[in-house]
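Hello,

Following up on my earlier ticket. Below are the two sequence lines again, exactly as submitted.
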Amino acid sequence: MPSVSLTVNGQPHSVEVEGRTLLVELLREKLRLTGTHVGCDTSQCGACVVHVDGESVKSCTILAVQADGSAVTTIEGLAAPDGTLHPMQEAFREYHALQCGFCTPGMVMSAIDLVKKHPDGMSEHEIREGLEGNLCRCTGYHNIVKAIAAAQEVIHGRRETLAPAEA
Amino acid sequence: MYDFAFHKPSSLSEAVALLADPDARPISGGQTILPALKHRLDRPSALVDLSGIAELRGIRREGDRIVIGAMSRHAEISRDPTVAAAIPALARMAGNLGDTQVRNRGTMGGSLANNDPAADYPAAALGLGATFVTSRRRIGADDYFQGMFATALEPGELLTAIEFPVPEKAGYAKMRNPASRYVMTGVFVARGPMGVRVAVNGAGPGVFRQAEMEAALAANWSADAVAGIRQSPDTLNGDIHGSAEYRAHLVTVMAKRAVLDAG
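Thanks for your patience. The regenerated structure is below:
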């Protein structure tokens, strides 16, 4: 069986897999990091988005062996060791950017990549376009977009703290 | 998905040797072959990962051509300053297909080797008169595309780079399926050393040139020149997403928009 060596959330791992093992299967079933969800398993819904070497990818559509030697970040790797949330997580909480929560890990991971690639900030329209690969079946997009718009200000240092959501 | 052996060669010659096995398949970005394997549409003995081969990477200008390594990912092409300066329509196309995560993995060579009738790059390659460089030879775009999921590539032959002549003007417009976001109908127009070329994707079983529009644009490069040209629906696709007549109508609309996009 092939062996895959990779770093997940800063921790090195060496895992035996099959050729056909998907990265999401390695994460969920071998490493028990079940924060990454499988929604459609057909690379459409984005619930499984993780970062591989800093780029957002759908972990249901990459083989574990393709991620050999990579640095992977999952939703579990975002918060600080003392539990302080990543600004994007904090924004999703403040803006109530979730209903059932199933799409949330993928939304947060995609949103972080999106914000990183737009250092000058994004309009609401650009945020919506950028979330094309993530589906929310509760159709809760409105607050997700608001959360990302607020988080980008903190992530790019234009605000010290998150703008509070309107009551 | 059935299991398979996995190889990651570091040279083209090694990859070609591994692909001499008729049951082995190349994998580049994997955004098409992995969903296909999940559906058990194929049962390869081995996957040969092309991502470790330096010869397949890189984007550069060589004289009046832009040469794009087959393993270039959509996101790289969309951000590449050389492509953006020489063929902005191609950079925009690369940044507006699939979604962010697909663009971070999928490759131009993978898409062109697959030749999905609803893919974007075939329109740019045929519209610009690209040359396909393979592990064996060079193939012109007019000979390369051979209908639905069919190309001139032979078993074991690998696409290594695609060469695009730099046009004076080029533009692209597409109507996307609102659910799948694949192309329902797209039109790529170009003018330059390749002459005036109009390529239609999404509408038929494979990408094709629209000769009547090419003649009209050669005489008068304007959206008005193609506005009155009607595409016959006879050879076009009709399905639950749109009839052949609807797609034929879209050819004219997209051609007008593509000329406007080209400027």
